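Bumping my old thread because nobody answered last time. Still need a sequence for this structure:
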């Protein structure tokens, strides 16, 4: 998983302190005669692959992935048509792997974060030996992935494909395709950005509150910066967690790559895969979420 760096800070500059989202809406009014698509709090693009760096970040991680939990239903539906085993690449702490095992699928979960895999295994064990027995974990960078088994379904969910450098992506796709059984599928999703929108607004900011139920009040200011020459983006989360006795301020950062849909389609074809299905969900007038289902040729 594309794990962010985390650094506790004694002080966050006042300009970065958590504020109500409405403040940004007032400060950044669109130019006269132009409409700016407002991004709702449940469709924040580019936030899917942030992983917790410590137990204190788990709440933020769950809040960022929560809006995308509907993909579990879509991927489970696909698994019922392909069967298992399932390969979950960039599994994190088991957001998909454990529910799949609960539904009876054998799952191999791959992630570079050892602590995330430990949480996955602990979650599976708490459910019971039947679920834990269906899950195998494998620690690896996606760019260094070497598979040994064969699979009916491979997942690059939570926009994990954006965590892979474009130069290394063809090799990863070939590795996956080479281990898909006949009739199997690769499913992946990513956020697609319109180039004019990136040029017009390469820096974007949101603020939101993290839903917690442990007496801690947590706010986050998220800043997203796109770099078009390198086709990359960086998202920085400035968080403030206030409890009864103290306030903790933490900075989390994740770097991603902007996906060129045409280039990705070419890479899939070169890997021996063809796009069988495409599902798009519009986030705003410049961004959409794309889910691809790819099948081996022949």
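Sorry it took so long. Here it is:
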């Amino acid at each position: 998983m594309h794990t962010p760096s985390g650094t506790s800070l004694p002080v966050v500059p006042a300009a970065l302190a958590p504020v109500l989202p409405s403040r940004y809406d007032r400060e950044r009014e669109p130019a006269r005669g132009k409409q700016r698509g407002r991004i709702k709090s449940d469709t924040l693009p580019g936030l899917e692959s942030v992983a917790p760096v410590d137990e204190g970040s788990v709440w933020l991680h769950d809040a960022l992935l929560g809006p995308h939990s509907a993909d579990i239903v879509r991927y489970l539906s696909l698994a019922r048509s392909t069967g298992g085993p399932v390969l979950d690449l960039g599994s994190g702490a088991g957001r998909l792997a454990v529910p799949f095992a609960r539904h009876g699928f054998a799952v191999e979960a791959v992630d570079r974060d050892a602590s995330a895999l430990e949480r996955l295994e602990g979650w599976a064990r708490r459910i019971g030996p039947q679920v834990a027995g269906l899950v195998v974990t494998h620690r690896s960078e996606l760019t260094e992935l070497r598979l040994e088994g064969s699979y009916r379904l491979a997942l690059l969910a939570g926009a994990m494909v954006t965590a892979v450098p474009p130069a290394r992506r063809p090799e990863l796709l070939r590795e996956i395709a080479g281990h898909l059984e006949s009739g199997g599928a690769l499913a992946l999703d990513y956020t697609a950005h319109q180039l004019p929108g990136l040029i017009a607004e390469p820096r974007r900011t949101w603020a939101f509150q993290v839903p917690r139920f442990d007496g801690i009040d947590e706010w986050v200011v998220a800043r997203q910066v796109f770099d078009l020459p390198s086709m990359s983006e960086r998202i920085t989360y400035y968080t403030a967690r206030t409890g009864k006795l103290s306030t903790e301020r933490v900075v989390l950062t994740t770097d991603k790559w902007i996906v060129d849909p045409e280039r990705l389609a070419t890479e899939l074809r070169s890997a021996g895969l063809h796009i069988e299905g495409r599902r798009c969900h519009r986030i705003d007038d410049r961004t959409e979420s794309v889910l691809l289902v790819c099948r081996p040729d022949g």
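The chain is about 25% helix and 35% strand. Let me know if any region looks off to you.
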